[in-house]
């Protein structure tokens, strides 16, 4: 059960304690991974979760003890600095009490607190995404993070785990992190569980939509990072060639802007938050919002499209692959190339054509204004080609499912257990 009192957290055998730190337990891919780690590591260690505060609730409860440092966010510069110091001192007290084998932090804000708190236990960071390409790291604070905080503090960590191999060269060349501190442990996927959930039937109305035309599906938050806006124009061009439908699973701050843009393109839109009526077959684009079981919308689709501007090791892409979907993904930093074309290196210049990887299709990023029209045309051609050829779809789906056997829970968590053994011995 959650606890708001640092001193009430359980104390087990110190060598068996692990402390996991994240700013909050709200909605997000990092929070999902944090939950998965907490559940799996609790099979071997006494896991305690720590958060800055519980204002957003606990959307991914693990069943492990949760300790809130009870430090709110927001406020002016002085308030932020004061709260930062309170988080550091609160985590230090918690580390002194638990004396964990290690404190593992997820997300950058938690990393700084972890690094500066000191106290018992090794300090391990889990880096979930690209730092160089994250468009949210901008302005004076972004400059401070990129030029001062990461280069100065990250080398204090005992180990730094990146979820994608391609984050490592960024940290070395872009931020001066020592190579010997770095290793990659990919995210894992509950393959059997995802496959089972994908078999859940659609509602009668949803099934009718899926039967009407080939379905392209994408999932993820409706945010700047996921870059869904330019996908709509590529899809509108596809409709001038052949019938198809585009389904969005997820919600976010850009939902109204995306719906407006789709309608400006002449697309007929269904948005679940605008009506209580079920979807009907006479629409082109379907925004279905957050779904408790997104997998049932993936399995019966014709293909999965993923236009992100940057990633870490994308859960949504991997989940679609588990469901046996052929995938078309932007060759964005980081993750998609590692998943779809693992034997290849990141190109020296951005991809401008469709590349058939070993396990899926890589496409240009839809982020450069000077090449956007041409890049959207590449996406349109690729979507058309995949929808036209059932044999290609079937083969790509088989390859995608095959690839995901490399990221099962058992394979990935053996790597985490080995890491903890190493830091304990060291």
UniProtKB/TrEMBL annotation:
InterPro entries, alphabetized: Glyco_trans_4-like_N
Name this polypeptide is given: Glycosyltransferase
A Pfam family per the record: Glyco_trans_1_4
Occurrences of domain Glycosyltransferase subfamily 4-like N-terminal (ranges): 28-190
Domain of life: Bacteria
Gene3D superfamilies hit by this protein: Glycogen Phosphorylase B
UniProt GO molecular function: glycosyltransferase activity
């Amino acid at each position: 059960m959650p606890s708001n009192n640092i001193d009430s957290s359980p104390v087990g055998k110190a060598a068996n304690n692990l402390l996991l730190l994240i700013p909050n337990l709200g909605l997000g891919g990092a929070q999902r991974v944090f939950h998965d780690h907490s559940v799996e590591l609790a099979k071997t260690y006494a896991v305690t979760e720590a958060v800055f505060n519980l204002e957003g609730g606990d959307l991914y409860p693990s069943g492990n003890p949760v300790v809130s440092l009870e430090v709110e966010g927001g406020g002016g510069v002085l308030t932020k600095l004061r709260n930062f110091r309170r988080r550091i001192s609160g985590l230090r007290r918690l580390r002194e009490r638990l004396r964990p084998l290690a404190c593992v932090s997820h997300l950058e804000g938690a990393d700084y607190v972890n690094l500066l708190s000191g106290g018992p236990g090794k300090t391990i960071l889990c880096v979930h995404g690209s730092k160089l390409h994250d468009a949210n790291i901008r302005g004076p604070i972004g400059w401070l993070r990129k030029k001062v905080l990461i280069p100065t503090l990250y080398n204090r960590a005992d180990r730094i785990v990146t979820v994608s191999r391609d984050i490592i060269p960024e940290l070395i060349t872009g931020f001066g992190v020592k190579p010997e501190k770095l290793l990659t442990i990919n995210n894992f996927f509950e393959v059997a569980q995802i496959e089972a959930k994908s078999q859940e039937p659609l509602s009668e109305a949803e099934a009718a939509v899926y039967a009407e035309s080939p379905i392209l599906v994408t999932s993820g938050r409706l945010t700047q990072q996921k870059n869904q806006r330019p996908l709509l124009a590529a899809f509108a061009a596809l409709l001038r060639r052949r019938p198809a439908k585009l389904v969005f699973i997820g919600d976010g701050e850009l939902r109204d802007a995306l719906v407006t843009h789709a309608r400006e393109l002449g697309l007929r839109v269904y948005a679940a938050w605008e009506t209580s009526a079920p979807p009907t077959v006479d629409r082109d684009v379907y925004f279905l919002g957050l779904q408790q079981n997104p997998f049932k919308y993936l399995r019966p689709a014709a293909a999965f499209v993923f236009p992100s501007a940057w990633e870490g090791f994308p859960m949504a892409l991997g989940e679609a692959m588990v469901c046996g979907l052929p995938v078309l993904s932007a060759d964005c930093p980081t993750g998609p190339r590692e998943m779809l074309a693992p034997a290849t290196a990141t190109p020296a210049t951005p991809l401008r054509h469709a590349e058939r990887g070993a396990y899926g299709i890589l496409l240009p990023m839809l982020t450069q204004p000077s090449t956007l029209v041409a890049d959207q045309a590449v996406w349109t051609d690729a979507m058309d080609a995949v929808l036209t050829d059932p044999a290609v779809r079937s083969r790509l789906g088989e390859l995608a499912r095959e690839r995901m056997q490399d990221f099962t829970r058992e394979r990935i968590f053996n790597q985490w257990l080995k890491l903890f053994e190493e830091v304990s011995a060291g």
